[in-house]
Specification:
Elements: H1 4-39, H2 43-62, H3 68-88
Length: 89
C-alpha cells in the first residue's frame, strides 16, 4: 500500500504534472510556430511569433516547468534565426 505521505506526494505530483504540461505544451507550440514563420521568410509575423514564444518560454522557466538555461538556449536559437532573417530582408 505505502505510507500515507508517499500516497499524498503521488497525488500532488500528478496535479503538478498536469499543471506544468500546459505551460510546456504552450511554449513548444509557440516556438514551433515561430520557426515556421521564420522559414516562410515572413518578417513581421516572424517577429510577433518570436516575441510570443520568448514570453511563453520565460513564463515556463519562471514557474520551474523548464530549466532557465533550457529556456535561454531555446530563445537563443530562435533569436539567431530571426536575426539572420532580418539581416537578409
Amino acid at each position: 500500500m505505502g505510507l500515507k505521505s508517499s500516497q499524498k506526494r503521488e497525488r500532488q505530483n500528478e496535479k503538478l504534472r498536469l499543471r506544468n504540461r500546459t505551460y510546456k505544451s504552450r511554449a513548444r507550440t509557440l516556438v514551433r510556430k515561430a520557426f515556421l514563420e521564420i522559414e516562410e521568410q515572413n518578417l513581421e509575423s516572424a517577429q510577433e511569433a518570436t516575441a510570443a514564444a520568448v514570453q511563453a518560454l520565460d513564463k515556463a522557466a519562471a514557474k520551474g516547468v523548464i530549466h532557465k538555461n533550457n529556456a535561454s538556449r531555446r530563445k537563443g536559437r530562435l533569436m539567431t534565426r530571426l536575426a539572420a532573417l532580418e539581416k537578409g530582408a
